[in-house]
Every structure is written in structure tokens, then in C-alpha cells.
């Protein structure tokens, strides 16, 4: 394990050590004073509502051995209460965090796979990590730690790991560039360019520009892996491929890694792929075409890292979804629940509705809520979701929220039963009397709509 010390941190952050010794080892880093364990290094970060720099004494009480703070004067009586700790004062704790992570990243000569995209980052990260772990000890992004704070904290968790798989998220131009330069991927992945955050960026072309910032951190000789069926990525590949090592995956357009003979049901997907003139059957335990794409991406990564196809297939088979992302279960009443309520944009809505539509011998019910952060595109994209509902043989549609009314407006053309509600309580009341054995229910909206409470009600139904 490669450790860093208080002295290292003082140097790379250009901070000032105001108390303690430089030889104290800093192993675990924490930004939440409530979660500190003895021996942790606490970084005080000023948020919109809370200034973490003010919790220095709570950090010391819990046994933090190093505090990295900004704009703080700590009384002498506080310092005298505790022993064996150090305090470093910096100009900006977020920038200090990024500098420390950059320093630690440079100490590791390991494969680093960084993933971005409008949709599918987390599920792609999870399946890629499963495949890579067939050969290496892997550190991967936990939860949604994929931004300018979360990515550095992930890197600071490196211990004796042999590879790292991370997500890179963004809301605005320039954000991926910053964190990609810290992650320094050897393999960069762009899953797709869709409409997430289009309200902030203004167009899909700008979203493409933002996603391509991942190349700002790609190491020399590194590889870019892209979904070749995404229209903007396909176009970019045709125009720029000669300037970079690119591996493509897809189902429709000719790609380096392809799936064919795809068969799907509620238990997952099967398909064939041909690698070096040999045909393989791939089994993915989660249904939906988007998970076929995720697994193709994982195959591309595995092959690039020299993992055998046999081991790659094992990794794909072991893949499990992160909670609330296409989480499929059956309750005691025999109702199939598709819990995909962690977040939503047009592309992920389309994929989830298509999956529901392909289920056979079931009454198909879609409970859909507002997609947020779409700005002036909101009405248009919610109406497009309504068109997807029309295409996919949905029996009953239930929408919640002001924007989701635009889904109902379009879907009414073909869906016989459409309910439009203002709040989740109305939905829960309806579902209590509506659902019956053999139904399949998709529950999906942006996280801010709190649809997990709807899933909880269905799951608890006797």
C-alpha cells in the first residue's frame, strides 16, 4: 500500500501546517464529520447550506488525525484537548482535495477505466468492474461519487488495488475536463450522448463536447471505447478516428464488438458475439437492450486488458445492479416490479419503456414522473416519452407531475387507460386497487420525484 503523509499534503496543496507533525500518515479521507473514524483525515468543505470547516472539533472528538481546513481560527483551548493530530490550512479545500487526489493517482501505475455518458454510467461501471475484477483487484466508484468532489475521494481510497473503474459526471461544460485530468484514464468510455442536462448545455452537440472532455485526461497511448450506435458518437468516430485509438461496440452499426441473435425476457438477455473468428454466447441476467450494450462495452474493456473471453463471460454473469436502477423483483402478490426510480432522462425512459413493452403474457403498467433539468426542452422530451409509450404496447399509463402531463397527452392516442396525478399519494392509492397477479409495473422518474416511496408501497403489498 502506498501511503501519503501530512508533509506530502502540505507540499502538494501549498498549505500551511499550523499544528502537528509532518510524518503522520493520512490513509482514509472523509468530508462528513458524522462519518469520521479514528485515524481519518478530515477535509472541511463549504457547501450551499453547511460549512464543513466549522466542524473541526467534532472531527477531533471522533479521532481525526489530520484536518484540512480553510478560513478557520481554532482556539488554543480546543487544541490542548486533543493529541497526535495535525492541522493544515489551505486557500480552498476543494482545490486541495483535487491536488491530493492528483498526487495519489500519480503514485499508481495501474489500468484506470473512466466512464461518462448521458445514461448508463453506473450500470456500465458496475459491469465493467465485474469483468476487470476477474483479473485485477478493483476499486470502483461508490454511489454517485462522480463529480469534482466524489472522484477525488474515490481516488484517495486506493490501497493495494490493481485497477480502478470510475464514473465521471457533469452538469456543465468544463467539469469532465477537470476530473478527467485527475483520473488520468488509460481507457476512456463514452456510453452515449443523449439529453441529460440539456437544460444546462443547450444542445446535444454541446453535450457531446462535454463528454469528449474525457479525452483531456486520457493518457498517451490510451484507448477510447464508444457506443457506435449512438448517432453523434458514430459521426464523431467517422470524422476523428485517425487521431486516437478507438474501440467501438454496437448492435446496428458495424463495430469492433457486436451482438446478434439477441433474445430477451424478464430474466435477462442472451446474444451471440464473434471475437477473433470464434463465436460466443453471452448471458446477461438483467433484461433490456441497454444492458446488452453495457455488456458489449465490458467485453471491449476486458479484451483490451488481456482478459480471456471465458473470464469476461463469468464477470458479465456475476454482474448485479446498483439499487433502484432497473431493479427487478416480484412481490408476494405475484406482481413484477421494475424499480428504475434513481433518475431519469429521455434516453433512460425510452430504454425502460422498451424493456417493459417486450415482456410477454403480462399486463404492462408504466408509472412515470417528471424528468428534471431539461429546461426549454422539457415539453418536447416528455412528449417524445409519450410517443415511446405508444410504440411499446403499454396497457396502463400513470403519470405524476406537471411536466409528465405531456407524456399522458401524447399516450392517450393509443393507451386505453391513462391516469394523471399531482402527487405520489394518489398513485399509491390507485395502485392498491388496480394491481393484480401477473402485472408488470415500471416505476421511473427523476430522483427528485421521490418515486422510491411508490416502489416501497408496491413491494410491501400483501
What does this structure look like?
The chain is an alpha/beta fold. It has three domains: 88 residues, Udp-n-acetylmuramoylalanyl-d-glutamate--2,6- Diaminopimelate Ligase, Chain: A, domain 1; 211 residues, UDP-N-acetylmuramoyl-L-alanine:D-glutamate ligase (3-Layer(aba) Sandwich); 134 residues, Mur ligase, C-terminal domain (Protein-Tyrosine Phosphatase, Chain A). 35% of the residues lie in helices and 22% in strands. It has 17 helices and 23 strands. A seven-stranded parallel sheet has the order 9-10-8-11-12-13-14, sandwiched between helices. Strand 21, helix 15 and strand 22 form a beta-alpha-beta unit. It is globular, with a radius of gyration of 24 Å. It starts with a strand and ends with a helix. The mean pLDDT is 93.
Question: What does the radius of gyration come to?
Answer: 24 Å
Label the structural class: alpha/beta
* Global geometry: globular
Q: Residue ranges: pLDDT <50 for 5 or more in a row?
A: none
* The top level CATH class name of the largest domain: Alpha Beta
Order of strands, widest sheet: 9-10-8-11-12-13-14
Mean pLDDT across every amino acid position: 93
- CATH-defined topology of the largest domain: UDP-N-acetylmuramoyl-L-alanine:D-glutamate ligase
Number of strands: 23
CATH homologous superfamily name of the largest domain? Mur-like, catalytic domain
Terminal residue distance: 50 Å
